Amino acid sequence: MGWNERPRRRGGAQTESRETLWAGQTLMLCHVFIKVKANTPRRFTPQFYLTNEYRSDAHLDTVTPCNALAHLLNSPAIRNQNQQFSVPMPVDPVCGMEIPTETAEATTEYEGDSFYFCSNDCRALFASAPEKYVETPHPHLIEAGGAIIPRLPYGRAKGEFDIEITDPTALQEGDSVTFSKEITDDDVRKFAEATSDTNALHLNDAFAEKTRFGHRIVHGTLVSGLISAALACFPGLTIYISQNIEFRRPVDIGDSLTAQCKIVDELEGDRYRLTTRIENYAGEIVLDGTATVLIDPLPE
């Protein structure tokens, strides 16, 4: 679950006290966080103790040394005053998004535990390799082209990418990445909501019919966002420095696009100059330009 235990020493002697970091919170516990008898099939997770699942002494036959945290959670002062103790929401084990249990789109059981997901797509990814998502901490970065890239397996995010690099440990001129995706009406409406760009050209059919385009088209900055998606496929952490863009033709809702970013010059200080291009399904260039990026190593 990505939680961390750190033993504390007092007066030079090792004690059983633990300061535990979990879900962005520091929990001070009187003993080792949890001990499970040898015949218990699976350790209980920290969230088990921080939710309504644990509320009595009934579990003392399998859990030691104490249930003090359960008594704490049963306290009316804690239950009624969230500002004193905030119970974390479940976390989607695939993408790492916090998911309120009442709004989770999908759930599943695995080795006696309940898991909640932001989408059926994340649940499908989980079902393909549950051990990977349960036993390793977030973030679950993707491996591709012999390197780790900073993309998350976020089930709702559609699209495919391809990497052509000579040496995953040292980017060089000629290395390139591509990212392909269909731009749907849902993408357009969510982009308008996220950015407040509610231009009627993109959202209203009757209005768009009277323009030079004759129909609704995709926001230009939504189209150019595919360049950023492609850049995230390079090994390392890519940081935008500058971007020059020329929009060649409009993009219709439902078009499938492919963004390509290719290194054309290695600059000083881990900086690179790239060509950036987006084509539609017919191979027509809809966007052309150049970018300068800084690529840092991924954090340990």
Number of domains: 2
| Shape, principal axes of CA atoms | globular
* Estimated helix fraction: 10-25%
Total number of beta strands: 15
Largest sheet: 6 strands, antiparallel
CATH architecture of the largest domain: Roll
- Count of runs of 4 or more consecutive helical residues: 9
Say which CATH homologous superfamily of the largest domain is assigned.
Answer: Hotdog Thioesterase
Structural class given helices, strands, pairing?
alpha+beta
Query: How big a fraction of the residues is strand?
Result: 25-35%
Output the CATH topology of the largest domain.
Answer: Thiol Ester Dehydrase, Chain A
Compressed to H and E, one letter per element, the order equals EEEEHEHHEEHHEEEEHHHHEEEE
Protein name: TRASH domain-containing protein
Domain TRASH: 92-130
Pfam families: MaoC_dehydratas (PF01575), YHS (PF04945)
Transmembrane segments: 217-241
